[in-house]
Write a structure and sequence with these properties.
The chain has about 180 residues and is mainly α. The chain is built from four helices and two strands. Helix 3 runs antiparallel to helix 4. The relative contact order is 0.14.
Length: about 180
Amino acid sequence: MPYATDRFSRLTIALHWFMLLLIVAVYASMELRGAFPKGGEGRAFMQVAHFSLGLSVLALVVVRIVARFAGNTPDIVPTPPAWQALLAKVVHLALYAMMVALPIVGWLILSAKGKPIPFFAFSLPPLIGENATLAKSLKEVHEAVATIGYGLIAVHAVAAIYHHRFMRDNTMLRMMPKRG
């Protein structure tokens, strides 16, 4: 039975929550690599996990964008002020841009370093030739965008909770699976 127009599609909801878990795993794998000594198997595993999970985000964000445009976008009830709606669109656009840009820049970094690009049991082709200077610059961009990502994710989550608890609108309910 399809969802009513008060919620996003089942596919969009499932992708949203699965991608949250995936993004947490991407960030965790990079943060936890420091717990392992350089050159060790644990650190190498965390790096491969980071690359593979990050590229999974890229693959799924494409599916998510298609699902988002093909499916319904339920109205927020009651309708928020125009400035809040605009701010929400800007934050969503920034989150989508981050989910596309970070994996591509990561792929470019490995390509420029001349390293293999692991995607689970596969190795992907490089996007560009070796260039150590470019690799260093891209790494700085990657790290800066990832740091901004923490803030974007926090703003997104706090806004959803604020709308649910204080505005008492259906913002968060639109992205929750239907029960019963």
